[in-house]
Design the sequence.
């Protein structure tokens, strides 16, 4: 385990578990849906190995069946947004035959329109935030496009936190001498009161001993 | 729309149009009639660098040439003939807008799509280089790159285009990451306004976005011969590209900086008084 991974693993020991990370992404799509008064919202992340987009979190109509499902990153509006790194709004999605038939039908929910913004880590597109079916009676505004892009930035940061935590979590579960230290940090974090104080004193003494 | 959120000026809200009033009399009242009256864009070649263009689409017609950029095993980009058409629909949407404004122009397509996280910037560069070398007067670009290692090459290429009298019309990206070429002064960068007149465009005295075109709720051509309604800065960009084609067809002598000045002088905020 490299020093970076050890640091990450120790940091992860203080982080909430996978459930809380999923909650973070879920809260983002819930808020996105609320902001735009939409029927559904989702985050898809790019899986570089398979060149696919994977539904990571979904809120609203069709969301139950969506999380975990994947589609080729070369397809659909989300695929375009991932590559162009440009926010895009499509209002009559049913006229785009490929989108409507392949992804939407699987969820049992057929959106009429969507707005999508890329999630970026520097230059790289790491995923797409999609907001489905804003109220049809309300005219769309450029301010909403800008707001979507702003919100996507926040979502991208949250996704990166989750991805780092997952990476660190897997380091924590690994073998090797340094993983033991990471697990120790995790165990210490769980302690309370005198036991924790004793643990801290012990580690302090160990630190002194190991100083060159 | 949530209230109280002040978005950056990447787009132009309808209620802020009045703030952009420009003096219409400098250096003289250039009219739209002078700029493109009677022009159809004939004789001008517009290159759409995008997801491909569906040739024969009712809103696009036949296109001149269609190429794509691929990366070989060593990572070198090759420009080859392309029969894939439009793999998303987006390039066809842009081409349809250009055609609707400049029915007489020739449209060529460069499809620039690689794996999402690998090499897209270098493919884009190769596509742009091809378009400039082929002498296109107007180049429509929705894509950009944010790779620092490509920044110099992109700047050299857009400066080269500028001196070869190719006007690059590029979508502004309203994202946190800095991307190019739309931020370069040698290109015409475009964001969206909220109005429905396709010939309405605004000069923005507060760059990097220099112009706003129609980009909201536009009926556009899409792959498969269809149409749908869409919004985005790339649609605004295609409107400006079409207008550039009209101007260049009528005034072939104009260099990019002159063409940009004509856009500034005929912009809707400069002609509000003149009508």
Sequence:
């Amino acid at each position: 385990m490299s020093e970076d991974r050890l640091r990450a693993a120790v940091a992860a020991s203080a982080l909430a578990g996978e459930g809380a990370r999923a909650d973070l992404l879920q809260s983002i799509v819930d808020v996105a849906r609320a902001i735009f008064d939409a029927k559904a919202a989702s985050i898809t992340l790019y899986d570089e190995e398979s060149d696919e987009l994977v539904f990571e979190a979904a809120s609203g109509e069709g969301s139950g069946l969506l999380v975990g499902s994947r589609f080729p990153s070369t397809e659909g509006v989300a695929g375009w947004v991932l590559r162009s790194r440009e926010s895009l709004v499509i209002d009559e999605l049913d006229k785009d035959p490929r989108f409507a038939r392949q992804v939407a039908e699987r969820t049992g929910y057929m959106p009429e329109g969507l707005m999508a913004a890329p999630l970026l880590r520097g230059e790289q597109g790491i995923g797409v935030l999609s907001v489905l079916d804003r109220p049809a009676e309300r005219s769309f505004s450029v301010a909403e496009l800008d707001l979507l892009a702003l919100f996507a930035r926040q979502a991208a940061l949250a996704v990166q936190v989750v991805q780092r935590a997952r990476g660190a979590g897997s380091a924590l579960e690994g073998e090797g001498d340094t993983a033991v230290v990471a697990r120790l940090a995790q165990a210490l974090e769980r302690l309370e009161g005198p036991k924790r104080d004793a643990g801290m004193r012990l580690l302090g003494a160990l630190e002194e001993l190991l100083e060159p | 729309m949530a209230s109280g959120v002040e978005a950056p000026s990447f787009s132009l809200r309808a209620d802020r149009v009045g703030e952009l009033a420009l003096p219409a009399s400098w250096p003289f009242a250039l009219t739209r009639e002078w700029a493109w009256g009677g022009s159809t864009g004939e004789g001008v070649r517009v290159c759409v660098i995008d997801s491909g263009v569906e040739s024969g689409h009712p809103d696009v017609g036949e296109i001149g040439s269609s190429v794509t950029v691929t990366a070989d095993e060593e990572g070198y980009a090759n420009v080859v003939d392309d029969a894939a058409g439009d793999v998303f629909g987006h390039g066809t949407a842009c081409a349809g807008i250009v055609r609707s404004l400049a029915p007489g122009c020739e449209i060529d397509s460069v499809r620039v799509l690689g794996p999402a996280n690998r090499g897209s910037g270098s493919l884009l560069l190769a596509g742009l280089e091809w378009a400039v070398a082929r002498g296109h007067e107007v180049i429509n670009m929705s894509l950009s790159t944010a790779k620092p290692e490509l920044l110099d090459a992109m700047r050299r290429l857009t400066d080269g285009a500028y001196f070869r009298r190719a006007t690059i019309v590029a979508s502004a990206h309203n994202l946190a990451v800095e991307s190019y070429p739309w931020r370069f002064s040698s290109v015409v960068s475009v964001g969206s306004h909220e109005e429905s007149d396709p010939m309405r465009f605004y000069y923005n005295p507060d760059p990097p976005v220099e112009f706003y075109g129609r980009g909201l709720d536009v009926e556009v051509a899409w792959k498969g011969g269809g149409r749908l309604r869409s919004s985005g800065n790339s649609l605004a960009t295609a409107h400006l590209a079409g207008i550039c084609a009209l101007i260049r067809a009528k005034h072939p002598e104009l260099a990019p900086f002159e063409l940009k000045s004509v856009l500034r002088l005929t912009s809707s905020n400069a002609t509000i008084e003149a009508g």
Remarks:
- Strands of chain A lie at 40-47, 52-60, 70-72, 88-90, 114-121, 124-132.
- The mean pLDDT of chain A is 80.
- The first strand of chain A starts at residue 40 and ends at 47.
